[in-house]
Predict the structure of RNA-binding protein.
Amino acid sequence: MLTGKQKRFLRSKAHHLQPIFQVGKGGVNENMVKQISEALEARELLKVSVLQNCEENKETVAAAIVKGTDATLVQVIGNVIILYKESKEHKTIELPV
């Protein structure tokens, strides 16, 4: 679990990032979860964009991704989901205590 201070820190880090995944009409599938999980291992922090034609609401999409990747949901803002997962091998982000 992240503290409020840590979430604020991660939001500021994520501000300049571009979404690298898009969830569209097909929703969240196993392959997408696998790719997001691999990207999280490499980057630790990333954004996922929920497109307008997505049939599920963004909270459901966020919950499905978090459950599948075991990541932490930092924020859902607009149609963008910010995720964080500490990397085992490529740790670059030092969270404030």
